[in-house]
Structure formats: C-alpha cells, structure tokens
Amino acid sequence: GESVGLHLPTLSVQEGDNSIINCAYSNSASDYFIWYKQESGKGPQFIIDIRSNMDKRQGQRVTVLLNKTVKHLSLQIAATQPGDSAVYFCAEILGGATNKLIFGTGTLLAVQP
Amino acid sequence: GAGVSQSPRYKVAKRGQDVALRCDPISGHVSLFWYQQALGQGPEFLTYFQNEAQLDKSGLPSDRFFAERPEGSVSTLKIQRTQQEDSAVYLCASSLTISTEAFFGQGTRLTVV
Average of pLDDT values for A19-39? Predict the structure, then answer.
C-alpha cells in the first residue's frame, strides 16, 4: 500500500549544527504534510506543516521543504539544541471525510553536547 | 489541564483479558482520532469520530477492537480477548474541526502478557 517513509532511521549531530531529516512519500494525491516531534513517553507534537501548493515554509528555527517532483520532504532544524533530541515523523494527510494522518516510521535525532 | 488526557498511562493485561482505554479530548473539539503505535514505528490510524459519529473505522485491526464516543466528548477504545500482538501505545488525538491541527495525548502503553 501507499505509505510515507524515512531515509535515515538515526541522525547524530553536534549541538549548534544544523540538522536535516528526510522523508519520501508515495501518494501523489496527498496535498498536506506535517512534521511531528515525539519525545520518549509523550505523544507526537506538531512542529510545522506545508501544503502542496508551496515548496518551502519557515518557522522558528525550522524549515520544511517539499519537492513534489520526486515526492520528497525535508525538515531542517537550525542550531540544533539538546532539547531537539527526539524521534521525528513526517505524516501526510489523505483528505476526504476523515483527514487521517499517515505516518512514516520516524528518524531518531540525537544531539551530542 | 487543557490538553488531551488519556488513562490509564500504563496497562498490563493477561492474554484473553478485555481492556478499556479512555480518552478525554480538549473541550469543544469535534474531531477525535485513535492511533496505534508499535515500538519503533510511526502511529497507525485506527478510527475517527466527528462528535458522536464514528465516520471511519477502517484501521481497526479486528472485530476485537471497538471504539465509542457516545456523547461526543470522552471516547473509549475497547479491546476484547487481548493478544500479545495488541501490545502497543494507543494514542488519542483531537482537533477543533476536521481541518485544524490535531493535538495528541501521551498515550496508553498496553502490554499483553
């Protein structure tokens, strides 16, 4: 079936460096994508979203890039901090009556002090 | 608090036992979702409610799984005759409307022994 997946299961970076987490999606009809952060023992927390009519969106220290040609998403985190250590998921929304989220398997971001 | 509340936080069940997991969504939120998250995986959609109406239950893995939201607020996910493969974190999320941000609870970790 169609799914959202991640290229790198684990990413280790030094504090202060920039982080890039990648994600591939397979449903070309999806028009809305979200990045979530999940810390141990907690539920996913919304970070940033992007619609398919955009190719870039910026938040506070985070940027999401969308390349519809190759069906690829990335999350860039500037000046990575220890508090950024978590599992990051991309998710796509299949529209319609439900708007349910389809999650990938996640990337563990480990920030080294 | 003002967030999504789930109880219990942890549940250990003997194989064959029935369990009930509770979700208190954010007050006034119309949409409510249940997800199942296996260890090391992304959450997988189970079911969706709009107020008291269960509009999508396509993700429920078997007829042992049942969800309800009788008054359009609190929801209960019931699993009958639990099996070891049911061991996972069960996440609840709510959103004000179908097209607005979903907020997740901390989840209930179910372990079937």
Answer: 91
Say yes or no to pLDDT of A97 above 70: no
* Cα separation, A6 vs A105, whole angstroms: 7
Distances (CA, A) of B77 to B48, B51, B92: 11, 15, 10
Cβ contacts of residue A90 below 8 Å, gap of 6+?
A4, A6, A21, A23, A25, A33, A34, A35, A36, A73, A75, A103, A104
Residue in chain A nearest B5 by alpha carbon: A43
> How many beta carbons lie within 10 A of that of residue A59, not counting itself?
11
Q: DSSP code of B3? A: S
Q: Are strands A45-51 and B19-24 parallel, antiparallel or unpaired?
A: unpaired
Instruction: Supply the DSSP string of B40-81, one letter for each residue.
Output: TS--EEEEEEETTEEEE-TT--STTEEEE-TTSS-EEEEESS
pLDDT digits (tens, 9 = 90+) for B47-105: 999 999 999 999 999 999 999 999 999 999 999 999 999 999 999 999 998 878 899 99
The residue among A105, A113, A83, A112 whose CA lies nearest residue A12 is A112
DSSP letter assigned to residue B8: -
Give the minimum alpha-carbon distance from B39 to chain A in angstroms, rounded to a whole number. 10
Please give the residue of chain B at the shortest CA–CA distance from A90.
B42
